[in-house]
Design a protein that fits this description.
InterPro entries: Ig-like_fold, PASTA_dom. This protein is mostly beta strands. Helix content is 13%, strand content 45%. The chain folds into two domains: 26-107, Immunoglobulin-like (Sandwich); 111-175, Trypsin Inhibitor V, Chain A, CATH 3.30.10.
Length: 178
């Protein structure tokens, strides 16, 4: 116990298991995440992370994968899982204590209802299906209307541009004249 106190007073830290003492004043790697801000949301399946690190030759890992580091600036592309993501960033350099940070990002899996007003029922149905939504045709025409002309989409519910979960039913009301 007395030896430990003397070593601490001399500015050394002694660790268990017989490791070599190291200076208590060992500098820490400096890590700064610049973009994106934690707490963001995207519909993309990945984001690009960048920041700075000191010393400039430090190594950076994002989610356990080496990031590209040049002159103290680092970048990495991260694939996002649906929903919430916690992205860990670590930096290390020989002779320094490592640094770590994390950011949270949400991958929003909703899609926008496409604008299909004025299109034929077949074209509108294909466009709605292409976004992962389920089209439901509400045909307001009768047999005479169909003989006299081709129906078009007069309204969409939920409205075009609304963000909805994939698989949501989208009602397309069709008629010859809107």
């Amino acid at each position: 116990m007395r030896r430990l106190v003397i070593l601490l007073a001399a500015g050394l830290v002694v660790s268990a298991c017989g490791e070599t003492p190291r200076p208590a004043t060992e500098p820490r790697v400096k890590l700064k995440l610049e973009a994106p801000n934690s707490g963001g949301t995207t519909r993309d399946d990945h984001i690009s992370i960048h920041g700075t690190v000191t010393p400039a030759d430090a190594t950076v890992e994002v989610m356990g994968t080496a990031a590209s580091v040049s002159a103290g600036e680092f970048t990495a592309d991260v694939d996002l899982q649906p929903g919430g993501n916690v992205i860990d960033v670590t930096a290390s350099s020989p002779g320094r204590r490592p640094a770590a940070d994390a950011l949270r990002y949400v991958r929003d899996m909703r899609v926008d209802v496409p604008n299909v007003l004025g299109r034929s029922p077949d074209d509108a149905t294909a466009a709605v299906r292409a976004t992962g939504l389920t089209p439901v045709i509400q045909d307001d025409t009768n047999w005479l209307d169909r003989l006299l002309g081709s129906p078009t989409v007069c309204s969409v519910s939920p409205p075009a541009g609304t963000a909805v979960a994939k698989g949501t039913k989208v009602t397309l009301r069709t008629a010859n004249t809107c």
